Amino acid sequence: MSFPFDVSHLAVRRYHHLGEGIDFGEVIRMKSELTTAMRAILDKPEKDSPVYTFFADLQPPVRKKIEEAVAQSSPGALRAAPAPPNPALFDVPAGAAPPAPEPPRPTMSVLMDEAHAAFAKNDFSRAKTLLNQVSEMAPRDSYVVQQLALATYKSESPDPLRALHDAAQILTVLDPVESNDPETLGLWGSIHARIWDLTKDRTNLDSAVAAREKGFYLKNDYSNGINLSFLYDVRASVSDEPDATADITMARRIRQRVLSICESLLAHERADLTPQMRYWILVTMAEAHLGLGDESNAKQYLKDAAGFHPLDWMSQTTEARLRALAELMKTRKR
Predict the structure, then answer these.
(1) What is d(CA 118, CA 99) in angstroms, rounded to the nearest whole number?
(2) Taking Cα atoms as reference points, which of 192, 200, 199 lies closest to residue 171?
(3) Cβ(244)–Cβ(251) under 8 Å?
(4) What is the pLDDT of residue 42?
(5) Tens of pLDDT along 289-330?
(6) Over the chain, what is the mean pLDDT?
(7) CATH 1.25.40.10: which residues of the chain?
(8) Whole-number CA gyration radius for the chain
(9) What's the CATH number of domain 107-215, 3.40.50.1000, 1.25.40.10, 2.60.120.10, 2.40.10.170?
């Protein structure tokens, strides 16, 4: 992939996204890669600004060395012991020990690591609690908002529908209707698709389709694509002609594009594809073939996917989705 000219000189590290969130194995891989890069930079500091590339005689700003400041200080003052605390400054009796300082708050990095660990254990309530703390530190950080919305609706607390509405409210900070961020759009689509499942409110179904359409055309990825094709079939099942036929046709076209995307990913033997990513690519291909009426290929890709030993929740999610698609196809044939 080539990048625009104005950022092509920068070091760019790519990561793989699954649509609703980043695979935990991918989070660990990227964390390790970035840690290695930062250590390499610290071990060998260089002038990496493009300004110095074009102005070779330009010297970086010179800071005042800490040693100079120490040298100019009075040695006696440096060695002087700190004065004992004045009991009058504390609301305690004279001679009593001053109150212990409050323990330092965990850093954003620590809280995010704990939240990722909670996601990996499907402990969405804990992830939500941790991410609420992070959100107080960075209220408009896109990734934090997205992860908080994801944890909120997956926690299903206090009940599934309320959790979905709360998650939608959290995402409004990122203006999802006008947003061009595929991750925000994917979450917005998932939330409204689930609200549709619970309420059968057509407005939510249309919102889910619109979000997935925009996300797919922006990102051209298999996750948005396969979800969009499914939503087209769902909408076709509750629409009159000719709208139903139009949605069925669009679902077919999107599935064909999704298969091309997945085949390209697998053909290039990318080293960054973890076993979980390969699983999702293969089950996506199985769903696409099933939606195109090719049950034989669908079964083969499901068999191949099982070889990557998916977690229970992954298998359950796949089975539920394929059952729902099979029901939609039965309705279509009646």
Answers:
(1) 34
(2) 192
(3) no
(4) 67
(5) 999 999 999 999 999 999 998 888 889 999 999 999 999 988
(6) 83
(7) 107-215
(8) 27
(9) 1.25.40.10
Which 3-state string (H, E, C) describes the chain?
A: CCCCCCCCCCCCCCCCCCCCCCCHHHHHHHHHHHHHHHHHHHHCCCCCCHHHHHCCCCCCCCCCCHHHHHHHCCHHHHHCCCCCCCHHHCCCCCCCCCCCCCCCCCCHHHHHHHHHHHHHCCCHHHHHHHHHHHHHHCCCCHHHHHHHHHHHHHHCCCCHHHHHHHHHHHHHHHCCCCCCCHHHHHHHHHHHHHHHHHHCCHHHHHHHHHHHHHHHHHHCCHHHHHHHHHHHHHHHHCCCCCHHHHHHHHHHHHHHHHHHHHHHHHHCCCCCCCHHHHHHHHHHHHHHHHHCCCHHHHHHHHHHHHCCCCCHHHHHHHHHHHHHHHHHHHHHHC
User: Please, which pLDDT band fits residue 78 given cuts at 50, 70 and 90?
Assistant: very low
**Tens-digit pLDDT profile for residues 226-267:** 999 999 999 999 999 999 999 999 999 999 999 999 999 998
Residue the block writes with tokens 């999610």? 317
Q: Which two tokens stand for residue 125?
A: 């309530």
d(CA 23, CA 116): 10
Q: Is it true that the peptide bond before 275 is cis, omega within 30 degrees of 0?
A: no
pTM above 0.85, yes or no: no
Q: Is the pLDDT of residue 86 over 60?
A: no
CA distance 5 to 8: 5
pLDDT value of residue 271: 73
